[in-house]
Amino acid sequence: MLKISKKADYALMALQHIASVQFGDVTPGRVVNTKEIAEEFNIPLELLAKVLQTLAKNGLIESHNGPKGGYLLARRANKITIAQILEGIEGPLGLTDCSHEKEGELCLQREHCNIRTPLLKVQDSIYQLLNNMTLQDMMGGTPLITIQSASTQGVAQ
Amino acid sequence: MLKISKKADYALMALQHIASVQFGDVTPGRVVNTKEIAEEFNIPLELLAKVLQTLAKNGLIESHNGPKGGYLLARRANKITIAQILEGIEGPLGLTDCSHEKEGELCLQREHCNIRTPLLKVQDSIYQLLNNMTLQDMMGGTPLITIQSASTQGVAQ
DNA sequence: TCGATCGGAGATCATTATAGTCTCCGATCT
DNA sequence: AGATCGGAGACTATAATGATCTCCGATCGA
Prior knowledge:
By secondary structure, chain A is mainly alpha-helical. Chain A is 41% helix and 5% strand. Chain A is built from five helices and two strands. Chain A has a two-stranded antiparallel sheet with strand order 1-2. Chains A and B meet through helix 1, helix 4 and helix 5 of A and helix 1, helix 4 and helix 5 of B. Chain A binds a DNA duplex (30 and 30 nucleotides) through helix 3.
């Protein structure tokens, strides 16, 4: 239950990779292209391309065309939250259909619905969780290009 | 994103209803049958039947056959958590496929996967949330058997 | 300037999950 | 005995997902 989609999964991996390259020791500032990520994580190339395009449209990464093109984080990793990433791919967080229901398109249960309010509370709590965790927080455990520069000082979680 | 299924939705409504009947003023201890719940909430009867059967199999409610049969909570409402309800219907909580992966059936990304650990943390936090909230907690706001009489029509939200 | 390399965008397809339906069975109460 | 309940299985339709294919425009470098 409450599974996120493969696309969202891929998005998280890709962003983590981009961040680790961009702020890593080896070639800081280097753009990362789709193919590189796809091969690193065994993700179908064209599906990943879609995901990255969506992330770019949502302003999380910026794209560069042409040869030697690719993607860069649009802002620092500690300014990109998990909620932003997931919502960019899968749409707004909502446990039920009625979460973002507009006036007029009521659900059949709405009239006697007894669980809407408590569920909205749960939903809000989950949102807090996802919005308080950033891409940078995700980079603590498993360094893959190795991040050990001065930028990892004040983390303290 | 992170939407729960209609079945899970129905399960929550049904349990809330059963609890409110069972511990309400009117006819405490009364069993509640499928048809009553289906009509109260506009839920397809046979789909709800499946849901209730599943809940019974999971030990959350107990069933009584025959005429005047129906369902009762298997234990007190404050001993039934949202996590138990949802997991009973939708299976174990898991943000990704690899959440409960057994040794041997690794995902293609596993080798270089950089997000597994942080995602498991998030998942665990969500589980805490869902497992700390009980059916009883869900019954604060909207009394239901209720108050059609002199009650306020001031909708407020 | 040409062409290889990149991302952007759209349609398309297969597979799976979901929501809902139908039929038959067994238990139980009157 | 028979009406009323839950139990269980197969079944269908529709939507979401995962993945693929094709074509386009931008850009860099030879």
